[in-house]
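A student in our group prepared the protein record below, which I am reviewing. This is what I was given:
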Amino acid sequence: MKKIAIIGLGYVGLPLARLFATKYSTVGFDINKNRISELNTGHDHTLEVEDEILQAVLVDKFSDKVGLYCTNDLEILKGCNVFIVTVPTPVDKNNRPDLTPLYKASETVAKVLKKGDIVIYESTVYPGVTEEECVPVLERVSGLQFNVDFFAGYSPERINPGDKAHTVEKILKVTAGSTPEIGIVVDELYKSVITAGTHLAPCIKVAEAAKVIENSQRDINIAFVNELAKIFNLMDIDTHAVLEAAGTKWNFLPFKPGLVGGHCIGVDPYYLAQRAQEFGYHPEIILAGRRLNDSMGEYVASQVVKLMIQKGITIKGASLLMLGITFKENCPDVRNTKIVDVVAALKDYGVIITIYDPWANPNEVLHEYQLKTTKELPTHTFDAVVLGVAHECFLELDYSLLQKQISLLYDVKGVLKNNVDGKL
């Protein structure tokens, strides 16, 4: 009988734990005591799992009974035989992969690892991390031998935060194992809960590589249309109109310009780039795409300031309302949001900024970025209003109530239809 432990109950781990808990006895483990307390009340502040759905699978203790038990007690993990690691894999301030969360999670699992157990990683990494970085930690701490006493697997997460249509069970899952036999076991495990099906890769490195190029490909395509936006803005041509016209061809890819943040697209290419450089290859296209996308925050700020000057608005001391701080629409996730780059660049010009986002947690934003935000729509007017995130609630605003008689309305997302002075 498989008893499953999910290590890390964030945007990836909790939806997965909830899904497995519909068929298996499942432990959700996280070192954050507040997170555990919150989940045990049946609420998920990330909004990835609706309260009634979470409450339907919660059990008051870990046993043979199907359901989810959330805890930060390491002893409870001793009753599990399949461990799935879903911790984040960020980059540091120099954009170098930071594997610290993976190392610590591996140490945690290793303390309770037994003969016959399987450790599956879902965290996005460069090819080789599972077997060359994580497995040695498991061996060292547990004293067990890899592929003799315990085994490993890899099944990269494909969670899209805030997306209620493409939930975890509806997205085809890539799987892999440290031996052909374990690959089949891992694949069957996921196949038992993933209605969209699975794809068994021939080895763990192939599965790792597949994940990291998914987001690298999107990053490069977005960089291309961001560059087009810069070119067409110089030509006074509507970029979105150009893309709409080009999109009438059956094989044109429908990417749009924008700020590339979040925990995947803005991070994963650096993992692949570092690994390539370790093999003596400098990945020009991947890093060029990253440089261009990372520059878009300052570009947006410069465009806003340029348009304000053209309207005769004094820049230093000007008031600006930034609508949105999360990294994407209709989602409370603020990880690696590039709106902060726009804000920082505007502040360098002397602009006074108010950030309004009803989705974002002000305490989390303050902790992560030292920025004050509000969940209440301001009642006074501003010299400039910038739509940074396309939350549905922003599409219904009466922007005239937020603007002074002479003011600017800039649309980063290109979703507003009328009275826009500029857009990306």
Residues 204-234 form the longest helix (31 residues).
